[in-house]
Design a protein that fits this description.
single chain; alpha+beta; Nuclear Transport Factor 2, Chain: A; two-stranded antiparallel sheet; 7 strands; rod-shaped; Conjug_transposon_TraK; Conjugative transposon protein TraK
Length: 207
């Protein structure tokens, strides 16, 4: 009888040990499954699907701080592109200047007003003159806020008979603002100054 009780007690201990092991294993698997599902959801949230030319492209989202230098330089380029890319068409001039002024503070508006007062845009339209810009480099210091920038570029003024190339160097600061359709990078150009804008060369156009 005592042997039978001992066997029952031993069997109960084995069942208890096995049950505890099974519970721990189930808890471990449950915790891992929850962790893995959260990681999967997080990765899926970082994925962006872009439709381009009828094809779906996959991209990954990243935090703004990782892209600040790239976005800051592109904002500076966009502002200068819209401000200095002009054609002898009043609607084109107005559209590009409007886009540029969305990206900058009153310092850019003052430059525009000064050019307008000197009949720069009127002469451009009446003289069938186009203006283009190409960038040499854009330097942005992201170690101090607001971010100081310096832009090095070339202006090309295309007249009916000549092409004038000008050097363009400007500086200013970038301040963070809310992103919008008119300002996709979420920066604002402040205290913008043109440091140099002298003629480099004049070429005659072939007819």
């Amino acid at each position: 009888m005592f042997r039978q009780m001992k066997n029952i007690d031993t069997a109960f201990r084995h069942i208890k040990t096995f049950s505890l092991f099974l519970i721990v294993a189930c808890l471990t698997i449950t915790v891992y499954a929850l962790y893995a599902s959260q990681q999967t959801v997080r990765m899926m949230q970082q994925k962006i699907y872009i439709l381009a030319n009828g094809k779906i492209l996959e991209a990954f989202a990243s935090e703004r701080k990782e892209n600040v230098p790239v976005e800051a330089r592109d904002h500076v380029r966009m502002f200068h592109y819209y401000f200095f890319t002009l054609d002898p068409d009043e609607k084109v001039v107005q559209a590009n200047i409007t886009k540029a002024l969305y990206l900058a503070d009153n310092s850019a508006k003052q430059q525009y007003d000064a050019l307008k007062e000197n009949a720069y845009y009127v002469n451009l339209i009446s003289g069938n003159i186009s203006q283009e810009i190409s960038f040499d480099s854009v330097q942005v210091d992201i170690n101090n806020y607001p971010f100081y920038f310096k832009c090095f570029a070339k202006e090309k003024i295309i007249r009916p008979t000549t092409i004038i190339t000008r050097n363009l160097v400007s500086e200013g600061y970038l301040r963070n603002v809310e992103r919008s359709d008119n300002n996709p990078h979420g920066f604002l150009v402040e205290k913008w100054k043109i440091l140099d804008n002298h003629d480099l060369k004049t070429e005659n156009r072939d007819r």
